[in-house]
Specification:
2 copies of one chain form a homodimer.
Chain A: H1 4-30, E1 36-37, H2 49-61, H3 64-68, H4 77-91, E2 100-103, H5 105-117, E3 123-128, H6 133-140, E4 144-151, E5 156-157, H7 159-165, E6 170-175, H8 188-205, E7 210-215, E8 237-242, E9 255-259, H9 266-279, H10 287-294, H11 303-319, E10 332-333, H12 342-350, E11 354-355, E12 357-358, E13 368-371, H13 376-391
Parallel strand pairs in A: 1-11, 3-4, 3-6, 6-7, 7-8
Antiparallel strand pairs in A: 2-9, 4-5, 8-9, 10-13, 12-13
Helix pairs in contact in A: 2-10, 4-10, 5-9, 11-13
Family (chains A, B): Belongs to the class-I pyridoxal-phosphate-dependent aminotransferase family.
GO molecular function (chains A, B): transaminase activity
Cofactor (chains A, B): pyridoxal 5'-phosphate
Chain lengths: ~400, ~400
Amino acid sequence: MISDKMKEYVSKSSVIRAMFEEGKRLSSIYGEENVFDFSLGNPNVEPPESIKEAVSEIFRKESPNLVHGYMNNSGYEDVRAKIAEHINKKYNLKLTENNLIMTCGAAGGLNIILKTLLNPGDEVITFSPFFGEYENYVKNFDGKLVIVPSNTETFEPDLNELEDRINSNTKAVIINSPNNPTGVVYSEKLIKDLSEVLNRKQQQLSTSIYLISDEPYREIAYDGVKVPYILNYYRNSLVGYSYSKSLSIPGERIGYVVCNGDADDFNDIMQSLNVANRILGFVNAPSLFQRVIAKCLDSEVDVNIYKKNRDLLYNHLVEIGFSCVKPEGAFYLFPKSLIPDDALFAKEAKKFNLLIVPGSSFKCPGHFRLSYCISYDKIKKSLDSFDKLAKEYL
Amino acid sequence: MISDKMKEYVSKSSVIRAMFEEGKRLSSIYGEENVFDFSLGNPNVEPPESIKEAVSEIFRKESPNLVHGYMNNSGYEDVRAKIAEHINKKYNLKLTENNLIMTCGAAGGLNIILKTLLNPGDEVITFSPFFGEYENYVKNFDGKLVIVPSNTETFEPDLNELEDRINSNTKAVIINSPNNPTGVVYSEKLIKDLSEVLNRKQQQLSTSIYLISDEPYREIAYDGVKVPYILNYYRNSLVGYSYSKSLSIPGERIGYVVCNGDADDFNDIMQSLNVANRILGFVNAPSLFQRVIAKCLDSEVDVNIYKKNRDLLYNHLVEIGFSCVKPEGAFYLFPKSLIPDDALFAKEAKKFNLLIVPGSSFKCPGHFRLSYCISYDKIKKSLDSFDKLAKEYL
């Protein structure tokens, strides 16, 4: 009796559950400490102390009916104003609370953006490899996800193909930098070139093409690399931000959407985001954590912990013969699998108690994803298994 | 550039905003203390102290990565098990964590249920007057909301018309007791009769018709009235529960869906609810508050505060000539307007600084809704305005 759309998901989700059960099975045989689960993107670094302090300050000073009550569906005005100011300082912009809406993480943000923009059949472009949920989010509103490949030597998108694939049905382009699953950070030049393509096509087609930047990993960047802020480069731009990774609080579902004030139909978009937040059932982003993050805008998890993990794992894999683009952000590596069949490769890896995700899951076969948001010691211990795996093929 | 579906909402939402602005205008002229806003359902009773205590206990005893991290998209297993046990004790059932999924309030719960059940064109029946969001939730998944009227002398649904309107496209029936906007609690007899109709039609049509109970007001019931639990009466039943009102924490977006274990396609439904929670962008119900409510299952706001409000307002209105079904729950009154045109009546009420919602907003013209979740003193002060309003017509 469940809907046709959901039937497909349910059958897929049993595959994922099977993988999960397999992990549990391995743990029960070899001991959890000897199974190396690189499959999940659940941050292991602790949230900063400031979260706890903020909660206790709020409980001490603010009225419980304010803290836990309804507010405007867009979120508390004072919280939005503080975040706007924070963004303005960092990226030299002039946003106000009216450019922002608080959301249930970036996932909630992307959904209200797509509900706002898409008529059935409208197209949304993204670049492979990509976070598989984009396809589901677009399908929620009967849109069509169009996949443009990246150059697999750099994991930068193929802008020529992008230009070819844009047509009058193209409503939006989703980018994600620092990227899941590659860890690549899009350079300023790339963002400029991308903006140029979009501007050119908008003019040619007399249409609006919105650039949506999915940014749960914005603060997780290494080696001083700058992550360009798209509002500085492209007019029709929206950012879906999440505090899940920057503050290690993914369970709390807190983030925001910011829309460029110069975007086409800005007022309609902001009103629609507000209504979509309500009618999709989010109603508003969780209230206490809106107030918490407003007090933690200058806090961040210790990114060096992830960097140390990256260096250890990346250096070792390259040393033993894996080919991999060096990630400058997020907490993923996306090496080439040692045989073309990445699903088989992931299966083989299990023999050495390595749980990895085939690149096909991100529409980029011949690769695999490693999430290194696990403990340094566990990664260290896993290196031997990677050695054994590599020896089978190299 | 926004979608056709959202255009309609945005134009409607400017009407609501206009009302809101009007309230602000009145406050600026007459002073906030002299404007009587009965339009909002934002609980004014303070959350129980146990919320604060639970948070500080959790912060003291549990690991931050557990408290704020990802968990199964259905919610923490231990939390679901505790809630199941709590329900079992109260309603003599045998639920387990597998019958439950934690949601972003009842609004999130209803959305994942409808995403699970509806193919485009499927019909969902509800009884007028009803909470206007049901129409939006059903439209989110391209379903069609079919409205069956209630008897306006009792606000119990017309079960004959229900039976007439059920056809092979009918996927679900939504009920809401204690009811928004009438405050009426459905009796055990009514639930039994309703179940009989549904069972008969299921058999006749060889189909499954799910009964969905929207229960944000379950604990807000007066005079010892019992609110029947539909899982005890009907097999294909789901409850969307929320802690928003029982604990006065509507901003935190925490609730759950429970599905009867004997329901048709139970396993598919539970898996689909899990996936829908993820792909609609909720991902999971906010993590800290999942753990908080698990520690507050025996807590409740002081319902007597609402009861005192109801008694004061109901008794006075009836005394001065209003006709009103006496509400046994929730925090709403739904009297007849003193002229047939309820929109005009609401406009007239503003002359006496009374902000009320026309019954047409709940698809029941000729009435108006008063939310009495405001302070007792404010209600007392407002009585004079009701007197003046009534004098215009009686």
